[in-house]
Amino acid sequence: MIPSDRLAHTSRWRKRALAEKALLSLGLLVLALALPPWPGAALVLAAAVVCSVTAGTPLGALVRLAAGPLAFILTGAATLTVQGGPEGLHFSQAGAHQAGLLVLRSLAAVSALLLLTVTTPASDLVQGLRRLGLPAEVAEVALTTYRLLFVLLDTAAAIHTSQEARLGTVGWRRRIRSTGLLLGNLLPRALDRARRLELGLAARGFDGSLRTLSPARPVRPANVAIIAMLLIALGGAGLWI
Amino acid sequence: MILEARGLHYAYAGGVAALDGLDLSVERGRRLAILGPNGAGKTTLLMHLNGTLRPAAGQVLLDGEVQTHGRAALAAWRRRVGLVLQEPDDQLFAPSVAEDVSFGPLNLGLSEDETRARVTEALDSLRIGDLAERPTHMLSFGQKKRVAIAGAVAMRPEVLLLDEPTAGLDQFGAVHLLAVLEKLRTGGATLVFTTHDVDLAWAWADTVALFVNGKVVRQGPPEDVLADTEALAQARLKPPLLLDLGLAARDHGWLPPSARLPRTRAEAMALMENISR
Amino acid sequence: MILEARGLHYAYAGGVAALDGLDLSVERGRRLAILGPNGAGKTTLLMHLNGTLRPAAGQVLLDGEVQTHGRAALAAWRRRVGLVLQEPDDQLFAPSVAEDVSFGPLNLGLSEDETRARVTEALDSLRIGDLAERPTHMLSFGQKKRVAIAGAVAMRPEVLLLDEPTAGLDQFGAVHLLAVLEKLRTGGATLVFTTHDVDLAWAWADTVALFVNGKVVRQGPPEDVLADTEALAQARLKPPLLLDLGLAARDHGWLPPSARLPRTRAEAMALMENISR
Amino acid sequence: MHIMEGFLPVAHAVGWTVASAPFVVVGARRLKTVLAEHPEARLSLGAAGAFAFVLSALKLPSVTGSCSHPTGTGLGAITMGPAVMSVLGTIVLLFQALLLAHGGLTTLGANVFSMAIAGPWIAWGVWKLAGKMGAPAALAVFLGAFLGDLGTYVVTSVQLALAFPDATSGILGAFLKFGGIFAITQLPLAVAEGLLTVVVVNLLASRQAGTESKA
């Protein structure tokens, strides 16, 4: 199970139109990058978190989702606090200031991305991209990927459990070997599953394309107007304060 | 006969014969159980009955007409004969339930409105209308199984082929699934299912075909086929428990020779009541 | 008590409680059936009993000692408690049967000679010595299932946890598997298995634990637990058919109140004979 | 090694997207041609994509104990070829960003360049070259996967250095800083990934052999 996917499917905003959610999240993302980090990014960060929580995401879950990216952001930013010189590396006040702003900006951007991921299943986004002109073939491969990755994650978890039960994950060498065996079994099984899926879909008239009918979720102009006003207000505040 | 197989031959890549001159006939509006042990090739047989696999020799007839494997012919054939595989993950590919069920109707060339109507109808007939918007990967096994059947039902097939429909389901899940299938049948569908479960075949089939070594060695009413201990032994199977008990009751004179043998728990309990009187 | 669970709590990522204050005790050398409907969390429970999952609260005791989840403690724990999952494909990862079964013994740090001896012993005890050199992915489902069990048996666990051991097997396969497991038990192993099949629990368990809503609501001898219609109904289950028939026979006075109820087909047929006398 | 959302300045994000686009478009064209001939391949490609996602979501044991993931670029390139990997890799990176917040949308171009283009081509090239020079199969696989993984890490370090040059020592100094700090996790990971890929490729080969001898 993927936490953000589960959150997206159980979100209060699950049935909101894709365009509304995309406009809000991507708008915030653009603002996070375009506005000066202080106070612009801070405002975006606050807005994204408030929206995510309003959509029904527990704050704790949001923090856990942000933890992974944050580790990278902090490591990356840490390198900016030191400067190379003729006598080796030394701490840099200016670098630290730059790093702080970078962390703030990245965090705002990550929270905007998270707002999208906890309200909108990735499959909806791919369907949206398809309507915007993504080639159908690529979209269909992507949607098959989405569907099968859950099946394969379950399988991988079960294989891992059985390896643990037989002490296959104790020690570095055994873990490498066990992980290799896991993957070496998973790939043929993934392809085998694709073959069986082909047979299963043939029975339903598979003629080469994987067309389906998505539920219609009409855009509400009022919501779009509210989102636009929010984004303009944030942009204005970020520039003027 | 809505569906017939005549002299089907088919061998796997390794050269092992899966079907070896198989004959089978399916009566319209009835429930046929194809009974055999695991690995006997029951799935392979089903895949011949809707044209997914092409026999090396022999024919499949639909309403008396020999079917061919050209593109257009196959499409028409599969429209009339639906197939539900044992493992629902082998048939569900779309991210959500309603999207998945819409695949078949769209392939039939139906309009969006018609497709939507078909999806609703199919989900309702499987009693899973409330799952329409759920993501496929968050369903339980039993729910997936019903969605897979809805995917076939949405194409309104005349014959529905089901591979081990109750495998992996618990009592409750199996009872519910059978109730839903029964409703489809009274709606006019013909049901053909494979199983290795003699008790299921006994409780629920109108006709049983015993599948051994690539052939149907016996086909007929359950009380004949499932009482044929010798034929069953070839398939490494034993008679259903209730059939055995019913025959013993008949032997002891507690059931008149012409009376129906108990097929369900309720009938068996009623028989016990009768004996005590 | 060789194995005990006390007050286990565990919730899935979504916040749904899987185990909700679960207690369970397993007697040495016996067969315990954990009975519950699909999706109840039976697998999750097994994964706590060998330390794969760590409870939010509660303890697992082995021979009276509380188990901990440190690296070394876990290794010792899993050496003593083996786990066999439902799907054999998830457990066979080496190219050949013998290589696969050697995975556990090698991880125990045994020498090559000792490992070879263990592999032979495990395959023989599962009666599949002839499969040793076969590639794992070419086996039948029933063969894979036995190889997976051999993989656990080769580590000589004191307790063997089996998730739905007979699921997917036909009559013949199930009977053979149970015979093999019975041999392991007489060899000293304690067997704990999950199932949704009340008839299997009735035919084969010494003790039944009824698992409902994250708790064991009843644990005891099969004739008590499986006759408790109310408790079973909570788990969406019905009593075993033979138990129902046996109780009816007892009610009608054909069986003395103290006599053992029929658990197998043979015993039921013998009872019919008795009645007729 | 992913660059997270919002970490790159706008100009760099756009620049790397533009740099990656031709590879992905050409890959998508290839995909279209393949799928026109083999419509059913969309299922197996989807399965391969799902596999790549699972692969990259696995935690590998690393010496520092931090959570690190195999890139899968080597295995993907060796089993599927580097051209298809550019599209599949992009799909996988998109899902990683959307499902795990690992990487990002504005940094997708940069991540695609390092992990779906540079890594696979390096891995594939090294693997082929080592094979031609007579290296044993396992060594060729190891070198391909090892250097493919190292390659993505070097490219990412370059990307970061270009975005954040050191005030005194410039881009080169910044590259050494970023390279140095990530080397702690990436070097052992590259070794692990190389070994892992050897195990996988060996297993796949032995399964293949088993199937053929039986058939």
Automatic annotation (TrEMBL), chain A:
Keywords: Cell membrane, Membrane, Transmembrane, Transmembrane helix. InterPro entries: ABC/ECF_trnsptr_transmembrane, Cobalt_transport_CbiQ, ECF_CbiQ. It is a multi-pass membrane protein. The chain crosses the membrane at residues 62-82, 102-122, 222-240. It is found in: Cell membrane. Pfam families: CbiQ (PF02361). One of its GO terms (cellular component) is ATP-binding cassette (ABC) transporter complex. GO terms for biological process: cobalt ion transport. Belongs to the CbiQ family. This is Cobalt ECF transporter T component CbiQ. It comes from Magnetospirillum aberrantis SpK.
TrEMBL record, chains B, C:
The keyword Cell membrane applies. GO terms for cellular component: ATP-binding cassette (ABC) transporter complex. Residues 3-238 form the ABC transporter domain. One of its GO terms (molecular function) is ATPase-coupled transmembrane transporter activity. The keyword Cell membrane applies. InterPro entries: AAA+_ATPase (IPR003593), ABC_transporter-like_ATP-bd (IPR003439), ABC_transporter-like_CS (IPR017871), ABC_transpr_CbiO/EcfA_su (IPR015856), Co_trans_ATP-bd (IPR005876), ECF_ABC_transporter_ATP-bd (IPR050095), P-loop_NTPase (IPR027417). GO terms for biological process: cobalt ion transport. Keywords: ATP-binding, Cell membrane, Membrane, Nucleotide-binding, Translocase, Transport. It is found in: Cell membrane. It is a peripheral membrane protein. Part of an ABC transporter complex. Responsible for energy coupling to the transport system. Belongs to the ABC transporter superfamily. This is ABC transporter ATP-binding protein. It comes from Magnetospirillum aberrantis SpK. The lineage of its organism: Bacteria, Pseudomonadati, Pseudomonadota, Alphaproteobacteria, Rhodospirillales.
Automatic annotation (TrEMBL), chain D:
InterPro entries: CbiM (IPR018024), CbiM/NikMN (IPR002751). The chain crosses the membrane at residues 6-28, 40-58, 78-101, 108-127, 133-155, 187-205. Pfam families: CbiM (PF01891). The keyword Cell membrane applies. It is found in: Cell inner membrane; Cell membrane. Forms an energy-coupling factor (ECF) transporter complex composed of an ATP-binding protein (A component, CbiO), a transmembrane protein (T component, CbiQ) and 2 possible substrate-capture proteins (S components, CbiM and CbiN) of unknown stoichimetry. Part of the energy-coupling factor (ECF) transporter complex CbiMNOQ involved in cobalt import. This is Cobalt transport protein CbiM. The lineage of its organism: Bacteria, Pseudomonadati, Pseudomonadota, Alphaproteobacteria, Rhodospirillales.
